[in-house]
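Narrative of accomplishments. A recurring question from our advisory board has been how the design workflow behaves on a single, concrete structure rather than in aggregate. To address it, we present the structure tokens for one chain from the evaluation set, followed by the sequence designed for it. No filtering or post-editing was applied between the two.
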């Protein structure tokens, strides 16, 4: 949601908009038949990414433009985050790109290994970017370019990360659980809690 407009996306490149979440209008998609995995809004710009590594942007949520990128290399892209004047886009095989405007993208390396270690989720919180990898890795960066490893003191599949103030949640360590700390990135005193719903959904 941004600038008074809800934007939804999904299979076959579908993009829908609504001013109220009730009445929806289909918009012309530039993603063809590719599944759009995420739509994101930050700094007055909508962004979308898809199953085949494509990125598009829109200033109004209605008219969309594909943006060239070389970092994705046709890998599936999962989502975006934004902070410190930088957009980040991440996805399968640990691909990661940064952009100051959503238009020009530069490949970055957060230190995740490729193969099965997809970058599943990312946030910007408390002055830093945080990314989680599928095989249990967490990385931190203050600029989106230089990254360090965060020791979470546990192993298990990660599908999401959520930060609310000083509380950090890493979701889906071993099917349907979450690792929670109230000390931002200090997981020494963290607790493991059950999640509700499907194992790979996070709150």
């Amino acid at each position: 949601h941004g600038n008074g407009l809800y934007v939804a996306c999904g299979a076959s490149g579908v993009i829908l908009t609504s001013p109220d979440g009730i009445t929806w209008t289909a918009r012309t998609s530039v993603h063809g038949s590719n599944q759009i995995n995420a739509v994101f809004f930050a700094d007055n710009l909508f962004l979308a990414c898809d199953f085949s590594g494509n990125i598009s942007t829109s200033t109004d949520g209605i008219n969309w433009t594909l943006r060239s990128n070389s970092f994705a290399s046709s890998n599936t892209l999962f989502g975006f985050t934004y902070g410190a004047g930088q957009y980040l886009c991440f996805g399968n095989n640990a691909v990661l790109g940064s952009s100051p405007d959503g238009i020009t993208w530069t490949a970055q390396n957060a230190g995740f290994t490729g193969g099965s270690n997809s970058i599943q989720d990312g946030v910007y919180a408390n002055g830093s970017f945080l990314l989680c990898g599928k095989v249990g890795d967490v990385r931190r960066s203050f600029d989106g370019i230089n990254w360090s490893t965060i020791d979470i003191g546990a192993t298990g599949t990660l599908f999401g990360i959520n930060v609310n103030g000083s509380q950090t949640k890493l979701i889906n360590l071993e099917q349907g659980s979450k690792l929670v700390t109230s000390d931002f990135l200090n997981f020494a005193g963290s607790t493991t809690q059950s999640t509700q719903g499907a194992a790979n959904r996070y709150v």
